[in-house]
Prior knowledge:
Number of helices: 15
Structural class: alpha+beta
Largest sheet: 7 strands, mixed
Shape: elongated
Mean pLDDT: 77
Number of strands: 9
Strand content: 5-15%
Amino acid sequence: MGRMGTPNQTQPIHDISPPPEAPSSFFPPIDTAPHSRSKATRLLSAGTYLDPAFRDTVITELVEHPERLVPPSLGYNVATVLGHALRARNLELGTAALILLIWGTGAAIITMNIPPPSLDLFTGSAPDEAGLSATLLSCLFSFTLASLLSLARRSPRGQSRSTLVADGPGNPPTGRFRRFRFVLLPLTIWYLMAFSALMVLSAFMGGSIFKGLAVLSLPALLLLVGTWHRLTLSKILWTELSRDGFTGAPPQTFRTPFTSRREKILAAIDTEQFSPLALYNEDEPFLGAGVPHKPWSLTLELRPRPDAPTVPERLDGRRVLDLIVPRLAELTERSTRTSQDRLNGLELQECVFLPSDLPEGLRRTTLPYRDTDVRTHLAESTGEGAEQRRHFLRIRVGGWQEEVVTTIFLRVHTQGDLLVLEVLPYVLAPPRSSFHQVDDLTERSTRLRLSTLAAAPAVTIAAVFSGVNALRSWRREWWHSTAHLPLEGPRVSIREAGARDTRSMFQEMDINRYITTIQDRITSGTHQALAEAGYMTDEFQQQVVNVGGGGVFVGGSMAGSIATGIGAQANTADAPPHTEQG
Length: 582
């Protein structure tokens, strides 16, 4: 298959010759355990409980579409996040089943009496058999309507189906619906709850304890189920997903008809997410790395030094990388003196990007993720200038406990007497602010309190909505399985889907420091490679742009003058002085 290797390569992807001898630096081991225990993994896992929409995205992308590969996981473990998403859905599905069972029981009791309800229940007289149905119907209807309004108050305009938030008044009062949300809605909810209590009281006053208990049991059971569900989720967040209790291991879930299929998906994800080989989507080849941050490249003509005593050595991408990597490794050694410097955890890994245009009939289990296959692609693609298969040195710094991930992809290759250097920095933003609510929970959140009871009606309705959504997901997974479709590259990054759009000024300063430091080591290593091989370095020094120092380079010929900096002036013979404000 030509697209999986060099342009002239026609052998199938699964038919690869024995790998050539390659230095051990081709395959530097990466310890994935810290990724599983990172803060980013913990917050994204908590997000599957706090934000049902995010949980749906995780399950839809990873489970409902097994034909899609996953992008590289930088600073987190997507398998752990998926495990928590599946358990959160199972819990809400079980809660929804209990609530629907209670509603079904109430409906069965109501339909036991065919005659229309008597109006005596509104006059205070003892309810008859038909009056019991009317009382039960009125009580159940008013409680359900109050629960819907309670969910609408906590989640306006359907923004989220989650009510599991830190104790407080809910969402901040903003917008033109403030008076409606925080005045009329609470009054309506209390009125409906009082009406439900009146229906229960009228049933007891009828003289039948059995009828009174029948009417009381339904809203009481609904409150009990909603309270139990909220306390269960709060306990998971407080214990398993707390700062001290998080281990990074995926949670155990009960077996379902989809368990064996999902276990295969999890095994494939574990292989793909940390592999040096990445099958990319042509529209977004660096999916999962975040957004680009001032990428740059240069092309340099290799010219021998006039004073060189011998003919210059042949310079290729491997030689340049072998001189750059030790300089980058020195950053980790020097930064160990300061344990808080994130550069001491800098990761270096050579990786190969392959197009995801795979041959038909190829399955996830037969992809070239074996060590021998990966080493072959690494050895063959180093210094290669092909368009489809590309070799990169991936330099990653996980700042702010892996919340802010800075990744620089470096590609070096030669084309005849030209040296091509490509530097592509990418930045992953921190997880959403709402996911940090897991750190606002306290041990009191796992206990029965008045606020827990007040939130129970909204929890019941939210659980039903999530349960119905889970059934639709199961239907898509079962009846509309995409396992027969050909494999394709990743379409969604879970890490990017759970990230926010902004970064703090401190984080921006750290990102700039990481990128500037790493780029300095890249250029110094390239300069050393040119000098040692016997090539001129003057042109390279001119082309290197020191962004941090405000340098300017203009390639080719130019006319006129350039002025940079505050108050600088550029004068020409034919124009008056002009000031550029930098």
